[in-house]
From TrEMBL:
An individual GO BP term: negative regulation of DNA-templated transcription
PROSITE patterns, sorted: HTH_TETR_2
Lineage: Bacteria, Bacillati, Actinomycetota, Actinomycetes, Streptosporangiales
GO MF term set: DNA-binding transcription factor activity; transcription cis-regulatory region binding
Protein origin, superkingdom: Bacteria
HTH tetR-type domain mapped to chain residues: 19-79
Name of this protein: Regulatory protein, tetR family
Segments of the chain annotated as binding DNA: 42-61
Keywords: DNA-binding, Transcription, Transcription regulation
Amino acid sequence: MTSGELIWTRPEPGGRRPKFTRAQIAQAALEIADAEGFAAVSMRRIAGELGAGTMTLYYYVRTKDELVALMDDAIMGEVLIPSDELPSHWYDALCAIAIRTWDVLMRHPWSLHSLQNAQAGPNAMRHFEQSLAALAGTTLDAPGKFALLSMVDDYVHGNVLRSAEVQAGGSDTEMADEVMRFAQEQFASGEFPHTQALYDGGDPQGVFGRLLGGRSARDRFCYGLAVLLDGAAARMKLPLPGR
């Protein structure tokens, strides 16, 4: 795809009073995907939500790839922190960006699979610029900054995928019962003493609640983020807040 084919290089349809904007189309698509999954998103369905003819929307968005790009950019717009709210210390700034990204992606967990090949848009560039700005006052060189941001992104995205899977699987109690029965049968073989030990001393069905200490998925994410950044600070010789 050449740069001339990117939706970002083509101005929005003009006219004195355009009926729709790309932002409205993207928002309608996000609401459908959030409610019913990405597979439910189509130009026909979006047109129905907006009260428009399907062919009318092709005046604004020519292809499914362009629609995906608009949806991805809308999500990245949610991720952006207002510039006057971004903390000045690199540690606090990266924490704020990572937590906001996690919150947004947990509202749209389907996006990690369905929008992963989207054309990078202006809000994605602003997000990357904001992340680099968070590290501007450090002594890291360009590869070091990129490495740290990549580590944080990997953690955020991986945690969202796992948290969303756990959230989705938690409602299938019948399957959970089957898994528990299978596990207990395997414990009887004596091959899994360390795993079996996790289940001792309480209701086997509530083992994960006991191991997680009652902390929410968001709390566990924040704890892991702090461990990651503390380790990065030690390895990369970066100052911690208050030092």
